[in-house]
Structures are given as structure tokens and as C-alpha cells.
């Protein structure tokens, strides 16, 4: 139980630091909070609503991983390094793919709600 408690505290601390230091994390947490009631309105079923919220939570998860990569890379060096730049770009691409996926889920759910599927 102590290990679980310490892991929970570490997770809270990481989320709090990311929230304070990254605008993108703040925006995605806001999007997650907005998605909670909106998903229940748009989702045709309870399961669809859960999927919509999870899609937004997935974007936040990928953003947190991207932020961790960027912070670690900046810790290694602040000088321009081509390889580190590529690594940061790949992290950014991962966020972009997650956003596209979430957008597709939401568009499908809206189309479904409107009765076109």
C-alpha cells in the first residue's frame, strides 16, 4: 500500500508540474473537463461517451509523455542539437496523431448522434 501511495503522490506532483509549466497541458486538461459533460450529450450510448472522454484523456497522456521528453532533452543541453530536435519533433508528431485520433472519434460520434450512421 505504501508503494501505491508514493506512486500516487509522484503522479500528482508530475501532473501539477506539467500544469504549471506547459500551456498545452493546461489546454488539454481544460478540454478534458469540457469533454466530460459534452461526451454524455453527444455520445449515443454510455459506452460512446466513455470512449469520447478516453480519447481526450489519451491526448493528455501523450502530451505528458511529450513534455517529459522535452524537459529531459532540455536538461541534457540547451544548445541546438539536430538529433534532440528530431526527438522533440517526434514527440510533437505523437501529440498530433493523438489529436487526429481524438478528433476522428468526436466527429464520428457527432455524425452518429445526428443519425447519419
Secondary-structure map with pairings?
Layout: H1 2-21, H2 23-42, H3 46-76, H4 82-113
Active site: 63
Function: Catalyzes the ATP-dependent phosphorylation of sn-l,2-diacylglycerol (DAG) to phosphatidic acid. Involved in the recycling of diacylglycerol produced as a by-product during membrane-derived oligosaccharide (MDO) biosynthesis.
InterPro entries: DAGK (IPR000829), DAGK_prok (IPR033718), DAGK_sf (IPR036945)
Features of this protein?
Helix Hairpins; ATP-binding; 117 residues; metal-binding; ATP-dependent diacylglycerol kinase activity; mainly alpha; 4 helices; single chain; EC 2.7.1.107
Task: Write a structural description.
The chain has a single domain (about 1-115), classed as Helix Hairpins (Orthogonal Bundle), CATH 1.10.287. Helices cover about 90% and strands about 0% of the residues. It is built from four helices and no strands. Helix 1 (about 1-20) packs across helix 2 (about 25-40). The radius of gyration is 17 Å and the shape is globular. This is Diacylglycerol kinase.
Span of the ends, CA to CA: 47 Å
What oligomeric state best describes the polypeptide chains here?
single chain
Q: What do the pLDDT scores average to?
A: 96
Stated plainly, the CATH topology is called Helix Hairpins
Return the string of H and E elements: HHHH
Indicate the CATH architecture.
Orthogonal Bundle
Strand count: 0
CATH secondary-structure class: Mainly Alpha
Class derived from helix and strand content: mainly alpha
Number of domains: 1
Query: What share of residues are in beta strands?
Result: under 5%
Number of helices: 4
Approximate shape: globular
What Rg do the Cα atoms give? 17 Å
**Unreliable spans:** none
Subcellular location: Cell inner membrane
Function: Catalyzes the ATP-dependent phosphorylation of sn-l,2-diacylglycerol (DAG) to phosphatidic acid. Involved in the recycling of diacylglycerol produced as a by-product during membrane-derived oligosaccharide (MDO) biosynthesis.
Transmembrane segments: 90-111
Active site: 63 (proton acceptor)
Amino acid at each position: 500500500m505504501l508503494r501505491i501511495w508514493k506512486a500516487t503522490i509522484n503522479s500528482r506532483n508530475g501532473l501539477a508540474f506539467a500544469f504549471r509549466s506547459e500551456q498545452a497541458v493546461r489546454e488539454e486538461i481544460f478540454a478534458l473537463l469540457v469533454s466530460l459533460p459534452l461526451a454524455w450529450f453527444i455520445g449515443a450510448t454510455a459506452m460512446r461517451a466513455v470512449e469520447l472522454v478516453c480519447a481526450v484523456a489519451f491526448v493528455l497522456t501523450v502530451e505528458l509523455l511529450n513534455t517529459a521528453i522535452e524537459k529531459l532533452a532540455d536538461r541534457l543541453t540547451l544548445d541546438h542539437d539536430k538529433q534532440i530536435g528530431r526527438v522533440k519533433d517526434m514527440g510533437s508528431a505523437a501529440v498530433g496523431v493523438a489529436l487526429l485520433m481524438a478528433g476522428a472519434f468526436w466527429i464520428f460520434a457527432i455524425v452518429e448522434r445526428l443519425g447519419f450512421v
